[in-house]
Write a structure and sequence with these properties.
heterodimer; A: 113 residues; mainly beta; five-stranded mixed sheet; four-stranded antiparallel sheet; 0% helix; 46% strand; B: 120 residues; seven-stranded mixed sheet; globular
């Protein structure tokens, strides 16, 4: 029941930028896009989230298109430790004014030496 | 400030036994979410609790599974009469407030390292 679409897998060379796309064409005007990643066998880790403006933090940058129907997560200088499954998520209503995050299949990013 | 603590990290049970998984959220967090990850699959939402209340249990099987988050103590995910299909990693996450979504550090989930249940 995820509301996003991501490629199944991507490769990236170590030291290069990794650009991970996500389509969320049904997103509503006030919904944020969240990105998490899961390194093998570990708990998911929050990366970044945004509404309509581009966002940047110490981990990554998030570029959201003007129509908000898609976004791209950018890891500027990928390292081998960035190999993980990356999830693009739009929150889902969970009863009343509560929300939850539902994870799709994500994109397996493999950073190669 | 410790993160989300889950225990046990690994649990082995025989078919028909009970499994209890515990989750201590980040200090001050009153919202807890449980997810299940079957081998080679993605995370599936199970249940969302807010101190003593179940907010959303739409992802939890109707039978054998229950969850609680008492006023004092950790959140517990309980699986009765386990079957081999229950073998999975169970992740707990917490947040300080409901996910209103605004640009603040409060609107993210912090995950634990997971509890891996193996049913023999």
């Amino acid at each position: 029941d995820a509301k996003t679409t991501q490629p199944t897998s991507m490769d990236c060379a170590e030291g290069r930028a990794a650009n991970l796309p996500c389509n969320h064409s049904t997103i509503s005007g006030n919904e944020y896009v969240y990105w998490y990643r899961q390194i093998h066998s570990q708990g998911p880790q929050y990366i970044i989230h945004g509404l309509k403006n581009n966002e940047t933090n110490e981990m990554a940058s998030l570029i959201i298109t003007e129509d908000r129907k898609s976004s791209t997560l950018i890891l500027p200088h990928a390292t081998l430790r960035d190999t993980a499954v990356y999830y693009c998520i739009v929150r889902v209503e969970s009863g009343g004014s509560n929300y939850k995050l539902t994870f799709g299949k994500g994109t397996l990013l493999t950073v190669n030496p | 400030n410790a993160g989300v603590m889950q225990n046990p990290r690994h649990l082995v049970r025989r078919r028909g036994q009970e499994a209890r998984l515990r989750c201590s959220p980040v200090k001050g967090h009153s919202h807890v979410y449980w997810y299940r990850q079957l081998p080679e699959e993605g995370l599936k939402f199970m249940v969302y609790l807010q101190k003593e209340n179940i907010i959303d249990e739409s992802g939890m099987p109707k039978e054998r599974f229950s969850a609680e988050f008492p006023k004092e103590g950790p959140s517990i995910l309980r699986i009765q009469q386990v079957v081999r299909g229950d073998s999975a990693a169970y992740f707990c996450a917490s947040s300080p407030y409901a996910l209103t979504g605004e640009r603040s550090g409060a609107n993210v989930l912090t995950f634990g390292a997971g509890s891996r249940l193996t049913v023999l």
